[in-house]
From TrEMBL:
Compartments reported by the entry: Cell membrane
ABC transporter domain segment(s): 21-259
Pfam family, one: ABC_tran
Record organism: Brachybacterium halotolerans
GO molecular function list: ATP binding
Domain of life of the organism encoding this protein: Bacteria
Entry keyword set: Amino-acid transport, ATP-binding, Cell membrane, Membrane, Nucleotide-binding, Transport
Membrane topology designation: Peripheral membrane protein
Family: Belongs to the ABC transporter superfamily.
Name of the protein: Amino acid ABC transporter ATP-binding protein
PANTHER family: AMINO ACID IMPORT ATP-BINDING PROTEIN (PTHR43166), GLUTAMATE_ASPARTATE IMPORT ATP-BINDING PROTEIN GLTL (PTHR43166:SF9)
Presence of keyword Kinase: no
Presence of the UniProt keyword DNA damage in the record: no
Lineage, uppermost ranks: Bacteria, Bacillati, Actinomycetota, Actinomycetes, Micrococcales
InterPro entries documented for this protein: AAA+_ATPase (IPR003593), ABC_ATPase_HisP-typ (IPR030679), ABC_transporter-like_ATP-bd (IPR003439), ABC_transporter-like_CS (IPR017871), MetN_ABC_transporter-like (IPR050086), P-loop_NTPase (IPR027417)
Amino acid sequence: MSAPAENEPSGARGPSLLESLRLRGVRKTFGSLTALDDVDLDIPRRGTTVLLGPSGSGKSTLLRCINLLERPDAGSIDFGDGPIRLGGRLGARTVRSVRSRSTMVFQQFNLFPHLTALGNVTLAPIHTEGVPKAKAEARGRELLEKVGLGAKADAYPDRLSGGQQQRVAIARALAMEPDVLLFDEPTSALDPELAAEVVAVLADLAREDRTLVVVTHSLAFAQRVADKVVFVEDGKVLLDGPPKDFFESEDARLRRFREMVS
Ligand code: ADP
Ligand code: MG
């Protein structure tokens, strides 16, 4: 007899208990360029999805559409409580609600230079979420500890290495307690040894039953942490499946990509 799955809500909240978000028909054009061509994608709950694909294939645009940093022309997103139409005019409440589900970590960290590490981590919880300062700071220190920067809470970004700045950015994203964490090439601005610190933090997060979506060029990273690999080319999803489907595919385009990036 199989044991009941952990934390399963009794009533189905959405498309599937196995997915944390579902995109359907997401389309984004920039003038005459179709950056996303009716993309369908299911992001597994409590798993790591790695997005791969050539430069310019639409990976960043896809992440940005999930977070509404970019407004799709058409399509829908479902976080488990019904599809939200993304094309056309969106009300401010809809935008806030979609944005609150995911948090993005950028390639270039984007820390506020005039705030300490702790200030960066607590800014949104205090000013946007209304968390009391003492509580936000206690939680912020825990999160900095978690990314290995407990001793750097009072340091300003210009006194931190790139790897440390990116780890502050990850702590800042965690402080928002999003359903889904989105990472857009989080290590590509870093030297290899600094990238390794960030990869170690990402691998820890991946072990914690969180929902992560990571754009990367690192096949080693994909091999190590991905539960699912999605390969994007010319704004279309070419492959969506377990990592071995990607790594063992005989498709010429996938083989070429594997050879090119490794
Ligand atoms: P990737 O992240 O896979 O490298 P992007 O999502 O950044 O690709 O870009 C997909 C395509 O959309 C590219 O051709 C890119 O030049 C174009 N693009 C992205 N953002 C914009 C923008 N704001 N304006 C015009 N074109 C854009
Ligand atoms: Mg990109």
